[in-house]
């Protein structure tokens, strides 16, 4: 089988790894792009219920990552300790959780309490399974190979898969007329869920970690007494391992920078459609053009990363990420100076921000993998704490996914958004102009300020030359 893949020039390990990216990209992008507008505009959820759901989601979102990370790195159950099996068994539940949001539990009235409960369950179920499956995949990234070139190849395959998967937003918008045809939207999400599950299960059946054999040997040698003793000290072990990760200076800097990146991802994913509908009139940019704009925001990041492979090898990820932050801040200054009436440049600005933020985020596996390698060497571990490092990172960064929509919605509602959701029904012209003015300042000032903070956090990061050094350990 492997020889057949090699005859086509395809690396089987990278291909199997990327299939989870393909499946998850298809459902993650649709979920993050549509769920806020769905619950606000179609289900008419109240602001209070929306905030309550986001607070519950924020807590669960932060807690489940280190919890699943610890389980996957320390559990002896094969479905947890073997990355491949975690993906195989988690994929069907992950795809099912994706569907919860799109099917109302009854015909919701405005401010219906059940719509708030529906949002809470949808967010927590989807994120729980996303975490379980993608933590295992993130660990595979660090464990498939320790060579920088091999990791770049994983990123290359990953971006191709993400490119294909991200097109789900484009096709979803075209099929459902940007969710106006809700039945078509629901049918499309079911189709996407089935395809996504099949893709991720392929990884579960064919991908391998270099440490799987070591885990199996350790399991075979473990006695009942050892298991009991490990259970008794598991909390102390968790505390010790977590402290070792948290005291890593580069990890602290990365987490700070990544928190703002996750905030910006949520900001643009959740509100680009709303900002576009209010700030760019239909006669300037018709619905079909907006569908292509939304699709481009999810498709072009992968093309950008794929075209930057030579730069990643020559400059390394540190300089590229730093330049991205500087460029984002500069572009926001230009947009602010031009003003809100430059509709085409505003559409370009929104799209470029979505592209750059997602493209830079796609590279974050490289610094985390280097942090895992250094931790492995420093503490002379028999196997890396891959899931724990990714999970601890998520503990501090995932809350930004909830903070972004909570803060933005609160600001918008102060300017009357709740009563002016539908642009066509905005009877109070002065109130609508005030809302649009605030939206424009949010679109410009938030990326500008956040990019400056990210530059300050990222500049002291010390792992800058991993693209020029030999592997830290030998692949077996």
Would you kindly provide a written description of the structure presented here, covering whatever features stand out?
The chain is an all-alpha fold and 476 residues long. 79% of the residues lie in helices and 0% in strands. It is globular and about 65 Å long.
**Structural class computed from helices and strand pairing:** mainly alpha
The low-confidence parts are 215-232, 472-476
Give the proportion of residues in helices.
over 70%
How big is the Rg?
22 Å
| Global shape | globular
What's the total helix number?
Answer: 20
Please describe the biggest sheet, giving its number of strands, its sense, and whether it closes into a barrel.
none
**What number is the mean pLDDT?**
85
N-to-C SSE string, H for helix and E for strand: HHHHHHHHHHHHHHHHHHHH
Content of β-strand: under 5%
**Termini gap:** 20 Å
Count of strand segments: 0
């Amino acid at each position: 089988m492997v020889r057949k893949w090699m005859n086509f020039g395809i690396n089987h390990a990278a291909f199997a790894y990327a299939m989870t990216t393909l499946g998850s990209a298809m459902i993650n992008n649709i979920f993050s792009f549509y769920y806020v507008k769905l619950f606000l505009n179609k289900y008419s959820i109240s602001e209070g219920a929306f905030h309550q759901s986001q607070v519950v989601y924020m807590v669960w979102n932060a807690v489940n990552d280190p919890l699943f990370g610890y389980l996957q790195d320390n559990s002896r159950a094969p479905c947890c300790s073997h990355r491949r099996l975690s993906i195989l068994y988690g994929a069907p539940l992950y795809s099912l959780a994706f569907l919860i949001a799109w099917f109302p539990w009854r015909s919701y009235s405005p401010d219906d309490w059940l719509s708030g409960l529906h949002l809470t369950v949808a967010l927590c179920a989807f994120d729980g399974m996303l975490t379980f499956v993608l933590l295992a995949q993130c660990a595979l990234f660090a464990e498939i190979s320790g060579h920088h070139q091999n990791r770049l190849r994983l990123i290359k395959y990953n971006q191709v898969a993400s490119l294909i998967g991200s097109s789900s937003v484009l096709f979803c918008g075209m099929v459902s007329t940007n969710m106006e045809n809700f039945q078509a939207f629901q049918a499309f999400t079911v189709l996407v869920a089935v395809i996504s599950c099949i893709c991720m299960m392929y990884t579960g059946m064919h991908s391998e970690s270099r440490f799987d054999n070591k885990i199996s040997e350790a399991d075979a040698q473990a006695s009942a007494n050892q298991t009991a003793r490990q259970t008794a000290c598991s909390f102390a072990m968790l505390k010790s391992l977590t402290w070792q990760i948290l005291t890593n200076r580069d990890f602290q800097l990365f987490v700070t920078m990544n928190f703002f990146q996750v905030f910006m991802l949520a900001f643009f994913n959740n509100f680009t459609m709303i900002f576009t509908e209010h700030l760019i009139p239909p006669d300037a940019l018709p619905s079909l053009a907006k569908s292509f704009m939304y699709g481009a925001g999810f498709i072009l990041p992968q093309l950008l990363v794929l075209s930057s492979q030579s730069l990643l090898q020559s400059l390394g990820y540190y300089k590229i990420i730093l330049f991205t932050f500087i460029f984002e801040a500069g572009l926001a200054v230009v947009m602010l100076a031009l003003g809100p009436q430059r509709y085409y440049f505003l559409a370009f600005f929104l799209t470029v921000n979505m592209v750059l933020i997602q493209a830079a985020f796609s590279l974050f596996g490289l610094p985390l993998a280097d942090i895992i390698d250094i931790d492995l060497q420093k503490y002379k571990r028999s196997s890396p704490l891959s899931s724990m490092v990714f999970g601890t990172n998520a503990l501090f960064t995932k809350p930004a996914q909830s903070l972004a929509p909570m803060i933005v919605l609160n600001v918008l509602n102060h300017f009357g958004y709740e009563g002016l959701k539908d642009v066509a029904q905005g009877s109070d012209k002065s109130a609508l102009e005030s809302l649009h003015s605030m939206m424009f300042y949010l679109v410009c000032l938030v990326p500008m300020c956040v990019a400056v903070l990210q530059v300050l956090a990222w500049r002291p990061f010390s792992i800058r030359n991993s693209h020029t050094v030999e592997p830290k350990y030998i692949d077996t």
